[in-house]
Amino acid sequence: MSVKPGETNNSQTPLRRIFILLAAVLVLVVLYLLPINIFNATGVEPLLTAEGKAALAVLAFVITLWVTEAVPFVIAALIGLLLVPLLGLHPLKETVAYGFGNTVVVFFIGILVISSGLTRSGLADRLTAAIINRVGFNPRKLVLVFMMLGALLSMWIVNMSVSAILLPVALNILHRCRALPLKSNFGRSLMIAVAWGPAIGGISTPVGNGANVVALGYLRDLAGIQIDFLRWMIVGVPAALLILPLAYLLLVRVFPPEPVSEEILAGLPVKGSAKKEKLTAREIKALTIFLLAVVFWVGDPLLVLLSGYSVPIEIVALAAAVLFFLPGIDLLSWKEAQKDVDWGAIVLIAAGLSLGSVVYETGAAGWLSAIAFSPLGNLTLAVRIILAVMAVEILKVFFSSNTVTGVIMVPLVIALAAELNLNPWMLAGPVAIATSLAFLLVTSSPTNVIPYSAGYFSIRDFLKAGLLLTLIVPFCITASFLIFGSFLH
Q1: CA distance 451 to 122
Q2: What is the gyration radius of the CA atoms in the chain, in angstroms?
Q3: In the prediction, which pLDDT does 305 show?
Q4: How many C-beta atoms surround the C-beta of residue 292 within 10 A?
Q5: How far from chain centre, in Å, is Cα 401?
Q6: Quick one: which of 351, 350, 440 has its CA closest to 83?
Q7: Distance between CA atoms of 396 and 441, rounded to whole angstroms?
Q8: What span, in angstroms and rounded, lies between the C-alpha atoms of 424 and 38?
Q9: Alpha-carbon distance 214 to 406, whole Å?
Q10: Is there a contact between 447 and 163 (Cβ–Cβ < 8 Å)?
Q11: What is the pTM for the complete model shown?
């Protein structure tokens, strides 16, 4: 059953929800009261502090509620924020400022408004018809097309932006075929494809994900290794090509799209029969705003190269969103935007970022990472890469930013590679690639929250689909690095 960010899973009885809430509280209390020396028994540096232990207790409490859907997802996150100052971990003002003041939230608001504008202008209808006329209406085929489009675009555009571009078109297709948010497997698989495709494609090039750039900087500054665009693609593209078909097959197996009734099919565009009607004035305005945003998103690397200046993606998204409301354009009213934008999803991502910052500031993130990478000593290179990537994917549950994950983990594995007398690229590269592959928890990446805001899948649905993929991905990345990683070195 799919539940939107501000809702509760009504299939659970009140007694069951109370029991789950008490169990989550028990998890919180046990972790909070456990002696610190139990966590530091391994002797791995850095040691976990009492504040870090408390932060992990709060996060475990919130994740328990998220996965079980006992309370609305947003409320679970807000309870977590309340616990932070109550346990003396961090002032609430600073914690909230990191999340709700984060530019990711601004970007998120911007792209949801853009999505609303594209839909209400009629342009999303036209794009939907164009896709259906090109590939036909086959739910499984459409899931594959959206996943491939997301991967291809994300090679050159930051994956959050790609997810935002695909959202209104995917949503329009689901509305046309009357897919119900609480019941449709087609809705689940198509919206998860909107998250997975960009995440997978984003590992192909350095510009596909912010953490990729972080890794390149650390490799240059800490290890003296210069990895250029081509060398990254030599390992990134094969890894993405291995993961993409497996992800698609897994997704349609876990959530097999249901067939669409003959009545609905009769009302959809037929392949090859699209009417070549002229764009309306509203569609031209919406298309112009949309293309301007895409030009800035795609062209930013070139702009940096030519001028040394960059236009942050959140500024582009916010500027484009504002244009929809301006006199003379008038594509959206504020009432329409209020109705279309899922503000609960915005609160969820902001609260997730806030909780992630607490885990980082208290040192719990560094301790988790050190523990995760400590077993990589007397092992073969292949096993080391597999375990390192798997560790990153699991640790992504605790973080809500790909870039922060890279900041924490890449320096650790560079230092570890030096201790093990390994080429740092062969450990730091796989770890950097894995930082954007968050398939376990929706809140682990803003790219996931964008399609999640449409309400077609729940946190539990996402976990169910992503669990097996999380086990497959390390082997795909390892194969790519073992075969191509030393090429041109």
Answers
A1: 20
A2: 22
A3: 64
A4: 14
A5: 8
A6: 351
A7: 8
A8: 32
A9: 6
A10: yes
A11: 0.76
Measured distance CA(232)–CA(227) in Å, rounded: 7
**Could you tell me the sign of the dihedral formed by the alpha carbons of 270, 275, 279, 282, in that order?**
negative
All residue ranges of the chain with pLDDT < 70 are 1-11, 207, 210-211, 261-277, 298, 300-305, 377, 400-404, 486-489
Asked if 450 and 261 count as a contact pair (C-beta separation under 8 A), the reply is no
Q: 400: buried, middle or exposed (CB in 10 Å: 19+, 13-18, 0-12)?
A: buried
Tokens at 459, concatenated: 């946190």
Question: In one letter, which amino acid is 354?
Answer: S
380-395 tens-digit pLDDT: 888 889 988 988 888 8
Instruction: Return the pLDDT at 326.
Output: 92
Cβ contact 95:84 at 8 Å: yes
CA distance 439 to 469: 7
- CA nearest to 174, candidates 160, 153, 188, 159: 188
Q: What ranges do the domains of the chain cover?
A: 103-208+258-340
> Using H for helix, E for strand and C for coil, what is the string for the chain?
CCCCCCCCCCCCCHHHHHHHHHHHHHHHHHHHHCCHHHHCCCCCCCCCCHHHHHHHHHHHHHHHHHHHCCCCHHHHHHHHHHHHHHCCCCCHHHHHHHHHCCHHHHHHHHHHHHHHHHHHHCHHHHHHHHHHHHHCCCHHHHHHHHHHHHHHHHCCCCHHHHHHHHHHHHHHHHHHCCCCCCCCHHHHHHHHHHHHHHHHHCCCCHHHCHHHHHHHHHHHHHHCCCCCHHHHHHHHHHHHHHHHHHHHHHHHHHCCCCCCCHHHHHCCCCCCCCCCCCCCHHHHHHHHHHHHHHHHHHHHHHHHHHHCCCCCHHHHHHHHHHHCCCCCCCCCCHHHHHHHCCHHHHHHHHHHHHHHHHHHHCCHHHHHHHHHHHHHCCCCHHHHHHHHHHHHHHHHHHCCCHHHHHHHHHHHHHHHHHHCCCCCHHHHHHHHHHCCCCCCCHHHCHHHHHHHCCCCCCHHHHHHHHHHHHHHHHHHHHHHHHHHCCCCC
Between the CA of residue 342 and those of 4, 313, 441, 443, what are the distances in Å? 9, 20, 19, 15
pLDDT at res. 33: 93
Angle at the Cα of 422 (from 418 to 427), degrees rounded to 5? 90
